[in-house]
Automatic annotation (TrEMBL):
It comes from Oceanobacillus indicireducens. It holds the Pfam family Asp_DH_C. Belongs to the L-aspartate dehydrogenase family. The gene is nadX. This is L-aspartate dehydrogenase. Its EC number is 1.4.1.21.
Length: 258
C-alpha cells in the first residue's frame, strides 16, 4: 500500500523511519504533503519519498491512503477533499469536535465509499467502552490527563496545578495540541458534552499520564496509561505514533480483534 503523509513533524518522522527504513511488509510512504518544501527537502533523499506542496497533485500521486499527522486545521482544511478520493487515518482527532465537520466527513465517506480510521492515539480502552455502551447504558466517562507542566503552560510552577476542568468539547478548544485523546474517547462513548476532562500541569513528572474512568450497567473500568513522550516533541506520546502504525498493520488482517 502506498501511503501519503500530511505533515513532517515528530509523528511523521517516526512513521517515515519505521515504515520506510524498517520496510513494514506491504506498506511504504511514497508522498509527503508539506507547506514549506525547502525546510523539509532533506526528507526526499533520506526516506526516498516525494514532497508535494500542491494538495491535489499529492492526492493524485499514486497513493492508496492518506495519513494525517499535522494538526486540527489540516484536518479541517484538507480531509474533506481527501475523503472524496482516498481512505484516511487521522491523528489530530480534536478537529472532530466540530460537529458540522464530522457530519460532512461522514456523508462524504459514505458517498465516495471511503473509510476514516481514528487510531486510539495515546490512550486505550476504546474497544471496551464501545462494547460496554452497545446498549447505550454507560453513564459516566472521565479523563484525567497529567503532563509535564512545560508541555501545557508557560508559567513556571513548583506544585501541580489543575489547568482545566470541564467538558471535552471545551478542553480541546483550549488545548488543541494536548488533548486530542479526549475527542476520540468522546466519539467512542458519550460524546463531547458528557465526557468530562481534567488537565493537570505537573512540574515533577516526565511522562504523559492519562487516567480513564467509566461506569455503567456493565460495571466499572479504569485505565491508567503512563506514556513515554516522543523525544522530538514531548507533548506527544510515543504510543500515539505507534497507534497509527498499529492501525495500518491491522488494515490488512482478515481477523479483527476487539
Ligand atoms: N490522538 C492523539 O492521541 C494524539 C494526537 N496528536 C496530534 O497529532 C498531531 C501531530 O503531532 P506531532 O507530530 O507531535 O506534532 P509536530 O508539531 O511535531 O508536527 C506537526 C507537523 O505538521 C505540520 N503541519 C501543520 N499544518 C500543516 C498543514 N496544513 N499541511 C502540512 N503540514 C502541516 C507542521 O509544520 C509540523 O511539521 C498534532 O495535531 C497533535 O496534537 C498528538 C499526540 C496524541
Ligand atoms: O500524546 C498524548 O499524550 C496526548 C496528546 O498530546 C493529545 O491527545 O493531543
Amino acid at each position: 500500500m502506498n501511503i501519503g503523509l500530511i505533515g513532517a513533524g515528530a509523528i511523521a518522522n517516526f512513521l517515515l523511519k519505521e515504515i520506510n527504513y524498517a520496510r513494514h511488509e506491504g506498506h511504504r510512504i511514497t508522498s509527503v504533503y508539506v507547506r514549506d518544501r525547502e525546510k523539509y527537502q532533506r526528507l526526499e533523499a533520506e526516506f526516498d519519498v516525494k514532497l508535494y506542496t500542491d494538495f491535489d497533485t499529492f492526492l493524485e500521486s499514486g497513493i492508496d491512503l492518506v495519513v494525517e499527522a499535522a494538526n486540527v486545521e489540516a484536518v479541517r482544511n484538507l480531509i474533506p477533499a481527501t475523503i472524496r478520493k482516498k481512505d484516511a487515518v487521522l491523528i489530530s482527532i480534536g478537529a472532530l469536535v466540530n460537529e458540522a465537520l464530522l457530519t460532512e466527513l461522514t456523508k462524504l465517506a459514505r458517498k465516495h465509499n471511503h473509510l476514516i480510521h481514528l487510531p486510539s492515539g495515546a490512550i486505550g480502552g476504546l474497544d471496551l467502552l464501545q462494547n460496554a455502551n452497545a446498549l447505550g447504558t454507560v453513564k459516566n466517562v472521565s479523563l484525567t490527563t497529567r503532563k509535564p507542566a512545560h508541555s501545557l503552560i508557560d508559567e513556571v510552577i513548583t506544585e501541580e496545578k489543575v489547568i482545566f476542568e470541564g467538558q471535552a468539547a471545551d478542553a480541546i478548544k483550549q488545548f488543541p495540541k494536548n488533548i486530542n485523546v479526549s475527542i476520540v474517547l468522546s466519539l467512542a462513548g458519550l460524546g463531547i458534552e458528557q465526557t468530562m476532562v481534567r488537565i493537570i500541569a505537573d512540574p515533577h513528572i516526565d511522562k504523559n499520564i492519562h487516567q480513564i474512568e467509566m461506569a455503567g450497567d456493565f460495571g466499572e473500568a479504569s485505565f491508567t496509561i503512563n506514556n513515554k513522550p516522543l523525544p522530538s516533541n514531548p507533548k506527544t506520546s510515543y504510543l500515539a505514533a505507534m497507534s497509527i502504525l498499529g492501525t495500518l498493520e491491522r488494515l490488512g488482517k482478515n481477523i479483527r480483534i476487539g
